[in-house]
Amino acid sequence: MNNTTYRYGDLTSPEVANELHGKVLILPVGAIEQHGPHLPLTVDLDIANAIAMELARRVGGYLAPGIVYGARSLPQSGGGPSFPGTISVRGTTLVNYFVDILAGYARSDLQRLVILNGHYENEPFLFEAMEVCREIGQLDRVEIISLSWWSVVKEDFLLKAFNGSFPGWHAEHAGLTETSLMLHLKPDLVREIRPEHSRPPLSGVYLHPIDPMQISDRGVLADTTKSSAELGAALFEHICTELELLLDKPHGMATK
Asked: 14-37: per-residue pLDDT in tens?
């Protein structure tokens, strides 16, 4: 295992071409979003950045500066705008923003660009931005893997962690997994209160008008009471291992 973290932002301009040649660059993407009364606003980027940093160590890749701001928080998957602290970007603006950033990195002499998302609502806009980049020929010389960290979590892990009552990733906003990961990664930022909401919202259902207080517990969509640093450590290792295995597989993408 490589114990060195290589940061893209630490490079000088003349160093970029030589240092990135044939390497993997990992770009974490998050949001500034309310995560209930117990977690900080930066959870989505904090988790994605920590996973990306560990993955970069393991594969000898580079860690790109994270994208801080993200897509609009929705009531059924993020609590929505009714809770203070969330800063959102409109989808149309976000796609164009992602296109410019992804195209810029894709022009580097990379082997592979890994986009690691930590904000549920970002995913479709990242995929749309990738499609735009592909259509305009910006992805011809680089392999890209774009995914959210929860996409690699196995069913057997969820079955054990949730004792068969997994509410769905849309409802895991500020729930058991994010709270446990933050207890492992940044315990000093986790407040003692553990919100509990027994009626998670349905996935893929948009309701208007809606009372956010009825579908959440102060912005938390599920249960946090069984969260722990031990579960967070196990989940973190599970995610990093699965991502490392994913990067090790041939994907049949574009070659230089």
From this structure: 999 889 999 999 999 999 999 999
Q: Is 131 a catalytic residue?
A: no
Residue 62 near residue 56, CB atoms below 8 Å: yes
**CA-based nearest residue to 149, from 5, 29, 2:** 29
Residue 254 lies in a domain: no
Is-catalytic flag, 173? yes
Number of domains in the chain: 1
- Structure pTM? 0.95
**Counting Cβ atoms within 10 Å, is residue 235 exposed (0-12), middle (13-18) or buried (19+)?**
buried
Active site residue 223: no
Q: Which of 33, 46, 54, 172 is catalytic?
A: 33
Q: Is the peptide bond before 209 cis (omega within 30 degrees of 0)?
A: yes
Which residue range(s) make up the domain with 175? 6-248
Closest CA to 225 of 168, 170, 162, 144: 162
Q: Is 44 noted as a catalytic residue in this protein?
A: yes
